[in-house]
Input
Amino acid sequence: MKKIVFGVILLVVGLGGGYWYMRHGPGATKTENSDGEGGRATSDEKHGKAKKEPKPVPVTVASVTKRRILRQVRVVGSLYGQDEITITPKVEGRILKTLADVGDRVKPGDTLLVIDDTDYRLAVNEAQRSLELELSRLGLKSLPKGDVDVSQLPLVVRAGFLERNSQIRKDRINRLGTSSPEEREQAETDNRVAQANYRQALLEAQTSLASAQLRQAQLNTALQRLADTKIVVPDPETTIRDKKIVEYSVVQRMVTQGELMKNSPSTSMSAFKLVIDNPLKLQAAVPERHLSEIRLGQSVGLEVESYRNQLFQGKVTRINPSVDRTNRNFQIEVEVPNADRRLRSGSFAKATIQTEADDNALTVPEEAVLSFAGVVKVFAVRDDKAIEVPVSTGVRIMGGDKGRESAWIEVRGDLLPNDVVVTSGQTQLSLGRAVRIRKPDSETEAKKSDAKAEDKNQKTEMAKPEASK
Output
């Protein structure tokens, strides 16, 4: 019994000591002021005593400005020659000379290489003799031009005379009454034979004429093959532009002197590759969404890796009327003048197509645009308060501002040409927050203030987990 009483006494003493420690110990909350009135400050806060308004945020601003914007479509592609030709000899044979090499410039009609023509000259002589043999049978020295009347050929003329002579003799015998039946029958037979000989002469003349024409064709073929032993630069219609002969550039030579050109399934007879490199053409793929913006004749600026600080000009000359179903792009061609031959066929190029010009585009300084979590906005100052204005951005341009080069961004949104937007101090702003506009000269201090504010916010965020602990 004594143990129970003693335990109860210890419990009461412990509870009393704990209560006293909570009320008067180091961690106790002070609720009394100097006048002895407890809890008045807390009560005032709970009952919504008026707080002080936050101070206006110092900011710098810039006006929304109308500027001329050139809208552009950027693409990439490769440069090609206006015409690219692979030269292949039409005849076989051993190469005697090569008269052009890589890098040379050649014009239509210039000789590139020469093939041994011995066999082809012999073939011409053979064809010439065969033609002369056929012409001698017809009694001619050369084939008449155009259609030939075979009845005027000597062989047919002779047969015609014999046929008429037999007809006259037969008629004379029939008129005389003194001739015997045997004589009249012989005259009739002679006349029929003469008529058959005339028809036969016509057939032989036609056959000989056809044979002579065949020999003439064979001779022409032999002459052409002889001419083909000299490989020359072709002269297509596309090589004449503005009454000037366009030069070709030799970009590849695939044969050498002494090599035997022989046409077979396992070998190629290609000898040279030529390209017209003035002008060049750029072939590029454009996304389908720009289909309504691209038009013939639009100006195009080109950049290549070999001339990084130079911009070459061209214009759109062809637009493919169909869109590729696999990648939803359509092809365009851009003609690029290349009189100085600095650009090379096969080069990679970046192109900027100037689609249209907008003289009234609204622009703001680049530092006024804020982007976070996919939301793009600016702060406009209206009635000395900050107003968030969501915008979409467009073209970035460089413009002068009081003698200083700066970047400006095209924006679309609920902005007016006479609005002003915040360019520094945005980190301390919220919707409806009062602002105080500072002079542009103090922009550096404003940026430092923003940096300090951000640093303070970061420290506060880092301190919160410690306080919770």
Q: What stands out?
A: Residues 73-81+277-357 form a domain with the Elongation Factor Tu (Ef-tu); domain 3 fold (CATH 2.40.30.170). The longest helix spans residues 181-227. The first strand starts at residue 57 and ends at 63. The CA atoms of residues 178 and 184 lie 10 Å apart.
